[in-house]
Every structure is written in structure tokens, then in C-alpha cells.
């Protein structure tokens, strides 16, 4: 996969930063396909949120995100999800804090047929206690769905 990276201002970004953000983006869908709610929740900051525009719902914190993953996996058990065309931008929000944002496309495939696709819009923050990037907020938008 090719990842487009944009760096604004003089922000120091390492290959590890880029890899961690990319792994969050891809890990989200792998956790969904495997029904790994705890794994998905671990990709988010403690107060992180995941918003699904189509159903007008926002899930906040580890318990709600874990439950969201398990419920969605049950609903789409035989579906495989793919992430494509991520564009990650790192920028300084405050003097001492760097944020990353992403906009990418997702696709749901069942039995070789695309059943839905849409856009992910993400904000990431770095958990300085463990030196790891995590989702602060993910917005899931549906462009088209067979349902």
C-alpha cells in the first residue's frame, strides 16, 4: 500500500510515527473482521470516539467502542473490509502537541461483491505515557451500501 504523507510546519515525524498511525488505520478493520472488540478499543485514546454518520451514533471510550466492534462484526460476519488511499497529515496543534489526521476510503466485500463503501476521517493523538499514536476521533461515512 502506498501512503501519502503531508507534514505542515516544522513538525518532527519519525518512521515509527507514520507506521503507528498506519497500523491504527488498518488495525481497525482487521479487528472489525475478527470481532476483536478489545483490540479495536486499544487503538483509541481513553476518551476516543468513533462516529457513524449513517446511523447518527457516536461511541465513546473503551467499553462503547468494544461493544460497537462486536455488534458490527455480528451484523457483517462474512464481510471483509479494506482500507485504501490513506492521506495522513501531521501538524502542530499546540506548542507541545502534534496531531495527525487521515482521510481514506473503506470498502466492505462479501462473497466477492462490494456491499458498501465510504470514507474514514480520523484524528490521532500521541499517548506520551506509552509513546504510541491512537485514534482520538474516527468518523465513518457511507457513500453507498447495498442495504
TrEMBL record:
Superkingdom of the source species: Eukaryota
Domain SnoaL-like positions: 14-138
InterPro entries named in the record: NTF2-like_dom_sf, SnoaL-like
SUPFAM superfamilies associated with the record: NTF2-like
UniProt cross-references to CDD domains, sorted A to Z: NTF2_like
Pfam families: SnoaL_4
Name this polypeptide is given: SnoaL-like domain-containing protein
Organism: Reticulomyxa filosa
Amino acid at each position: 500500500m502506498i501512503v501519502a504523507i503531508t507534514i505542515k510546519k516544522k513538525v518532527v515525524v519519525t518512521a515509527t510515527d507514520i507506521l503507528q498511525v498506519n497500523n491504527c488505520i488498518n488495525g481497525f478493520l482487521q479487528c472489525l473482521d475478527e470481532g476483536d472488540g478489545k483490540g479495536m478499543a486499544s487503538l483509541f485514546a481513553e476518551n476516543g470516539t468513533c462516529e457513524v454518520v449513517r446511523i447518527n451514533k457516536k461511541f465513546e471510550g473503551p467499553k462503547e467502542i468494544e461493544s460497537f466492534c462486536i455488534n458490527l462484526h455480528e451484523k457483517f460476519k462474512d464481510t471483509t473490509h479494506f482500507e485504501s488511499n490513506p492521506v495522513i497529515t501531521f501538524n502542530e496543534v499546540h506548542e507541545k502537541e502534534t496531531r495527525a489526521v487521515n482521510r481514506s476510503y473503506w470498502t466492505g466485500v462479501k462473497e466477492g461483491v462490494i456491499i458498501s463503501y465510504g470514507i474514514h476521517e480520523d484524528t490521532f493523538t500521541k499517548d506520551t505515557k506509552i509513546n504510541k499514536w491512537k485514534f482520538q476521533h474516527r468518523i465513518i461515512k457511507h457513500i453507498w451500501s447495498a442495504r
